[in-house]
Design a protein that fits this description.
By secondary structure, the protein is an alpha+beta fold. It contains 2 helices and 9 strands, in the order H-E-E-E-E-E-H-E-E-E-E. This is DUF3221 domain-containing protein.
């Protein structure tokens, strides 16, 4: 085998290995095995863990431990999971938080209730065990918060039935 043929063979083998590694990395990312960060509303707090609502982008609901004790239901947060910690396979999954950032609420609204208080009131009327808060809007014309939620069932959003998506009306009092 001459040098040119040997170099082609080595380069071809190297390219195949590189493509295989890139494919494996992409499939790991697509399967959800590693999540960089998740954003959602805190819908429940139990035993020093927070339940983050499912995201409108298809992110499932998740429990997070190792969170600050100052967090409250209704806050919108971004959580960076600890990639080194074990993950439970149950749904919703239980992960350990590496960092939690509370997202600042809009302060320019003429509302009496804060965004967090509106979410807290809406949560009482959701009626689904797991759900996404798809949209939160305030109408100054009728002094009302509108919280649109979508049910999360069996690892997917339930959108086949009208009852699976509803808008909860919270009066600004």
């Amino acid at each position: 085998m001459n040098v040119a043929t040997r170099m082609k063979y080595i380069l071809s083998l190297g390219l195949i290995i590189l493509i295989a590694l890139i494919g494996a990395a992409c499939s790991q990312r697509e399967s959800g095995e590693q999540v960089d960060q998740v954003t959602g509303y805190i819908t429940d707090i139990q035993d020093q863990e927070i339940l983050l609502s499912a995201g409108p982008d298809g992110q499932p609901p998740m429990w997070f431990s190792n969170v600050p004790s100052s967090l409250e239901v209704g806050q919108k947060v971004t959580v960076i999971p600890d990639a080194r910690a074990p993950v439970s396979l149950e749904m919703p999954s239980h992960l350990m938080a590496k960092k939690v950032n509370v997202i600042a609420q809009a302060s320019d609204l003429p509302a009496k209730l804060t965004e967090q208080e509106a979410v807290q009131q809406a949560i009482r009327d959701v009626g689904f065990p797991y759900y996404a808060i798809d949209e939160l809007t305030y109408s100054s014309a009728d002094a009302t918060w509108y919280v649109r939620v979508r049910e999360w069932v069996n690892e997917v959003f339930n959108s086949e039935h009208d009852e699976a998506v509803k808008t909860i009306v919270v009066q600004d009092r």
